[in-house]
Amino acid sequence: MPPPPHVRAAVIGTGFGGLGAAMRLLADGVDSLVVFERAEAVGGVWRDNVYPGAACDVESHLYALRDVPNAAWSRRFSGQAEIRAYLDAVAHEHRLTEHIRFGHDVAGAVWDDGAARWHIATTGGDWTADVLVSASGALAEPRFPDLPGLGTFAGTVVHTSRWDERLDLDGARVAVVGTGASAIQVVPAIQPRVGHLTLFQRTPAWVLPRRDRALGAALHTRPRLHAAVRAALYARHEALGLAFRHPRLAAVVERVVSAHLRVQVADPGLRRRLRPSYRLGCKRLLLSDDYYPALTQPNVTVAGSAVEVRSHGVVDAAGAEHAADVLVFATGFHVHDLPIADRITGRGGQTLAAAWAGAPSAHVGTTVAGFPNLFLMQGPNTGLGHSSVILMMEAQIDHLAHAVGYMARHGVAAVEPRAEAQAAFVADVDRRSAGTVWMAGCQSWYLDDAGRNAAVWPGSVGAFRRRVAPFRPAEYHLRPGSAHPPASPVPDIPLNLRVRGTVARGLSLLPAAAAARLAGAPVEIDGQRLDPHVQLLLRLEPRPDAEGEFRADPVAARHRLRRDVLAVRGARTPVGRV
Questions:
Q1: pLDDT tens-digit series, residues 460-484
Q2: Of 149, 247, 345, 375, whose CA is between 20 and 30 Å from 262?
Q3: What are the distances in angstroms from CA 578 to CA 272, 390, 466?
Q4: Alpha helices of 282-388 — where are they, by DSSP H?
Q5: Distance from the first to the final alpha carbon of the chain
């Protein structure tokens, strides 16, 4: 039997983390790459969550990859379909689909310590890889509550993350269990259609005004203005993050949020039931303009916790049975007991789930002692309560890219975080978590089985980037050995080409502002401004057909520039992005 195909890097998942990691690896010259996707399309959580009202709760202009900005979002907060379309465009425009294997669900990944590689079993065949990137996401597998009698329900049962778009709710009696991020979207979306809706609420949520609106075209052709808007949003969210880390500030925000509740809910009794008793931010902070108004409608009942399911209804904590034809679970995901963790086996035959034992931890949220060459996107303590998680994933992608680059340059076959380094990072997270709203005493999915904050980074996005983006070799065990053959030297390169290669290498390392000053007047092609690094390289090596190349296929043009620098240097060199 022939050996399975081998690649330098294998990525699991095609959400933001998987596509972002694949795009960065390819840009850095890691062309031996495969991406496994269990479904038949990209999108991750934005492919799977098609329930009515599904949308992002972070502003659109902050919810995009930094290297693929999108100034053409249609709304302040984008809906599921538009975000999925964005991810689909990223995959196609950056030629990631050439590396994606659809219908390949990863059944298991086992580290081979002798060969220093991962053996990966998928439903589409076996592979081996030097580096494994798990980007299956923390919000991938739905969680159902363990309710007595659930199997006896005679109607339709659906989870928001596995919504059946053929489901007819017109005039139906619908029971919704849960009051989290998906519940506050699906409830107002379906309330006008259903005959009656009963919301089973264990704990009310803090709900801020969303102030969603349609966006105009002002940013479509003004990239600097778009960048300024994105920077302003980033700063605003970082300021909001102070309230999470300093509960006394959270109390001030609570007064603002309470005013939102008072304005939208006139009934004092209902208002009391909807006001949380825990500190703002202890559970996930939610945004909505229409959730509270939906709950005040005559065809809606707000009940207590669901405690039992019967054949034609659901019983609440007070013992009352509420008739239902459809039962909707808006009950979240397996966050700490990720199913993928049972399928990843590290050094010594221990699975990731066994290593974590209900208390997940990782070095810089990305790598795990005992699991060489494994990188986690959205690993422990990489979540946020106040800003875009994509910013966190990009810091992790930087760490991945820097690690893989270090391995290639220094002939390292495997990297594995030192146990003491991982313990020090976890201790720092615990120190930062102390006194924050997440440790204020409420029960939330942020906490693991032992009550430790295992999900959220208890600091600013900037602090996370500074700590996570660099690869610090001293924090890792470095196993020597050629991870892959080095680039073959190019013989007899003329001196003038060597000089050009050196200059090109220097130009590619310039800060963006310096490159822009040297490049001169910006060059625009069909309304898209050329990266100043690319402008400088084109001035160094003029190409009469450059405009046509970039207009026809900007990704291929960028790859040709990188290839040319490789030819004069004899090593892979990123030369900027379009």
A1: 999 999 999 999 999 999 999 854 4
A2: 247
A3: 54, 20, 25
A4: 291-295, 352-356
A5: 44
